[in-house]
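We were asked to recover a plausible sequence for a given structure. The inputs and outputs are reproduced exactly as logged, with field labels preserved.

PROBLEM: sequence recovery
POSITIONS: 522
GIVEN STRUCTURE:
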């Protein structure tokens, strides 16, 4: 007769007890409780969760459940129910989907050896690695090891496929591109016959125009929903449009849970958010340096910053500038133009770094958990309101405080006016008055930034802002002038060359102000 506790997974013959475990957090690494007073301790889940899972989260320093974790456990009809879950950034959604899904597997739903029981799909490679790590930590105390594999681009396809097929990937965390690719192999598709749970993390992003086609191709190659696998969709932002598309993953009548009051701002309340509105794009670079210096001076002992740029090449150039202009800070760069090894290495370094400045593109705009980030700066227009919210969500995680500043030039200032629900106030110091001091630093630094990096940033600036022509209220000719001002601000004596075919692709053929030709060297 069962004592009501979930069955202890039996020890497979020859299976070593799971030796490695996450080192017990030291005082300064102990995640501060997300829990506020009155949040339930995980020990209350002793009749719901396998004892080894409770030992796992305890070893991770999770003593109390966060609101979204408690809501999932207390309001889901069963741990295998389909659900659409919204909770603010940094509040523990990863464990909120992993724990019920893993408990399901342990409750007699393990797939056959080599089969995938839980599939988590997320938008970026770094997030896939982060989720897999959290999964390994949560299951670290299980007597029978549960392997969590990853599948994402930028890694050797053959070797990772070999590892997948020869391994026992009870859990797979994947990005859509690589998953869609390997599902083209029959022997890979067979591994999903015992699928029990499909999770879309950052679900609104996974179901938007960018990813939806790949997601639909993937769903066609997985067992049909009628096989009964559980669908779970999680995000900090779930705009209305998501309700129309989640039915491809969730059964009708799925449970919808949210820890966010519809009348409150979607960003974490503890994060004061400011804007710096510039008269000209030429003020962008001294304004960034001024904000970083001001923020450092007001909080020198807690200065771990993420600066978001709008394009990968723009971020690469910004990194080069900040390295030269701010040698007193350790600076990091992360964007899609880097090799995967560099991206993975930098992600790990910045996660561990007690302080420093990460200059990043949106490759880390969602989901990424960099402990103790004290400030998020956004330079230029976010792709949309949701992206703004997720970027701000890189700070104030796990119950910590944080601050956010967005720097926009005049044409971009519509973003503030068209997002009244965002609690963004004017920056408390008059940054524009401080610019001359920082302009001198910019003028001294840019001559040492590679001209090709500037040319790539110029081209990326044109391409990115071309997509917002209407919102920026610009004619193509004015856009080119704006980009030429941006190039001037980078210290380019004249606008960088841009190839004829690139101009054609951008739809800027014949627009005056461009210098058509081939760059000296790439
Ligand atoms: N119950 C808990 N107690 C203490 N810390 C927790 C708890 N749950 C999660 N954390 C920690 O809080 C941080 C944020 O967790 P997580 O990344 O899952 O948040 P999220 O809600 O998924 O954020 P995002 O919306 O940005 O993806 C992580 O460092 C995680 O280890």
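RECOVERED SEQUENCE:
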């Amino acid at each position: 007769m069962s004592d009501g506790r979930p069955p202890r997974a039996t020890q497979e013959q020859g299976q070593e007890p799971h030796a490695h475990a996450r080192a017990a957090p030291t005082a300064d690494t102990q995640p501060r409780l997300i829990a506020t007073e009155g949040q339930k301790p995980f020990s209350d889940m002793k009749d719901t969760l396998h004892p080894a899972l409770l030992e796992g989260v305890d070893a991770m320093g999770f003593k109390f459940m966060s609101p979204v974790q408690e809501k999932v456990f207390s309001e889901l009809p069963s741990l295998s129910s389909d659900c659409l879950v919204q909770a603010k950034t940094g509040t523990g959604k990863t464990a909120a989907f992993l724990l019920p899904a893993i408990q399901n597997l342990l409750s007699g739903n393990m797939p056959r050896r080599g089969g995938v029981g839980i599939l988590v799909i997320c938008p970026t490679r770094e997030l896939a690695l982060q989720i897999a790590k959290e999964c390994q930590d949560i299951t670290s105390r299980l007597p029978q090891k549960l392997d969590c594999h990853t599948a994402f681009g930028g890694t050797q396809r053959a070797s990772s496929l070999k590892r997948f097929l020869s391994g026992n990937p009870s859990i797979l965390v994947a990005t859509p591109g690589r998953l869609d690719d390997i599902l083209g192999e029959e022997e890979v598709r067979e591994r999903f016959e015992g699928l029990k749970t499909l999770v879309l993390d950052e679900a609104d992003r996974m179901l938007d125009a960018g990813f939806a086609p790949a997601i639909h191709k993937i769903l066609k190659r997985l067992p049909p929903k009628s096989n009964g696998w559980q669908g779970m969709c999680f995000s900090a932002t779930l705009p209305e449009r998501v309700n129309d598309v989640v039915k491809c993953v969730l059964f009708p009548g799925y449970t919808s849970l949210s820890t966010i009051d519809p009348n409150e701002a979607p960003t974490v309340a503890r994060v004061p958010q400011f804007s710096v509105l510039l008269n000209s794009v030429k003020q962008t670079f001294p304004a960034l340096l001024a904000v970083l210096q001001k923020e450092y001076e007001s909080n020198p002992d807690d200065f771990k910053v993420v600066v978001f740029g709008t394009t990968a090449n723009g971020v690469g150039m910004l990194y080069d500038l900040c390295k030269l202009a701010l040698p007193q800070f350790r600076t990091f760069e992360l964007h899609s133009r880097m090799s995967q090894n560099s991206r993975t290495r930098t992600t790990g370094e910045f996660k561990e770094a007690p302080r420093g400045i990460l200059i990043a593109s949106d490759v880390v705009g969602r989901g990424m958990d960099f402990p103790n980030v004290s400030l998020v700066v956004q330079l230029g227009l976010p792709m949309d309101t949701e992206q703004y919210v997720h970027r701000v969500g890189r700070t104030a995680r796990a119950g910590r405080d944080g601050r956010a500043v967005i720097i926009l030039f005049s044409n971009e200032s519509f973003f503030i006016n068209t997002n009244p629900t965002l609690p963004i106030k004017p920056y408390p110091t008059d940054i524009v008055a401080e610019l001359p001091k920082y302009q001198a630093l910019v003028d001294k630094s840019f001559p040492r930034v590679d001209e090709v990096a500037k040319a790539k940033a110029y081209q990326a600036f044109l391409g990115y802002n071309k997509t917002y022509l209407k919102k920026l209220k610009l004619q193509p000719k004015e856009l080119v002038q704006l980009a030429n001002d941006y190039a001037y601000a980078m210290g380019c004596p004249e606008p960088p060359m841009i190839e004829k075919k690139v101009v054609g692709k951008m739809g800027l053929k014949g627009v005056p102000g461009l210098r058509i030709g081939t760059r000296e060297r790439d």
